[in-house]
Amino acid sequence: MRPVIRGASPRNDDFDDYRDAFGELVSRLGQYCSYCERRIPTNLAVEHIQPKSLPLYEDLEGRWDNFLLACVNCNSTKGSKDVVLSDTFLPDRDNTAFAFEYPPDGTIAIRSGLTPTQTHIAEATLKLTGLDKSVSEVIDSNGDLVAIDRVGQRMEVRLIAQMSRDDLDSNPTEEFRRQIARTATGHGFFSIWMNVFETDLVVRKFLIEAFNGTASDCFDLASTSFISPRPPAGLVGESKI
């Protein structure tokens, strides 16, 4: 899960209509779901971290610090579940890149070496948005697997990233590495690209730069290794990992 930095609110007060924050959020974070990392050029929505439908959080409906961006799948699965900030890893408050791994089978795994408490929070975070779901296999009339869900789409993008890595072997230039990062932004799934290019420091740096809103303070830019806990930014419930 890509760690992001939303920055300070463009307003001095809350938004009268939370939908008015959409353009600013896209400008700062890119057209990506803050949870599953897919690029969503349409039907991306302002996401309330703590749901506006619960009376406990109704005063946060227009609050900038309560906004992220989400796809229909993650948003609908999350629904009106009560999100306790201290019990959830959030991409604007934690180094979520350190919490999760992205194996070739399209699933999202919890990184080994976490404490029991961190592992429990990571499991709850995946369940919150349905990122722990298995692949839904649909075969077309030609017998080919169709990537209709988030698992299948992760596998599809991993294949593209792997082909880009193979192409790099025959054109190992800095400009081609930059082009790989630009290609990645068109597909989304930042963490998959970072995983496929885990041994290429230059590509990883370009990926961190190319994806708008990536929290660079979550990475040691000399090695692109993870920094955990995430440096504090004054948000409630932050720096758990």
Total beta strands: 8
Mean pLDDT: 94
Shape: globular
What profile does the largest beta sheet have?
Answer: 2 strands, antiparallel
Structure description:
By secondary structure, the chain is mainly α. The chain is built from eight helices and eight strands. The protein has a domain at 138-226. It has helices at 22-29, 72-78, 96-99, 116-128, 150-170, 174-187, 190-196, 201-210, and strands at 45-48, 67-70, 100-101, 109-110, 138-139, 145-146, 219-220, 225-226. It has a two-stranded antiparallel ribbon. A hairpin with a 5-residue loop joins strand 5 (138-139) and strand 6 (145-146). Helix 5 (150-170) packs antiparallel against helix 6 and helix 6 packs across helix 8. The longest helix is centred in the middle third of the chain and has 21 residues, at 150-170. It is globular, with a radius of gyration of 18 Å. The mean pLDDT is 94.
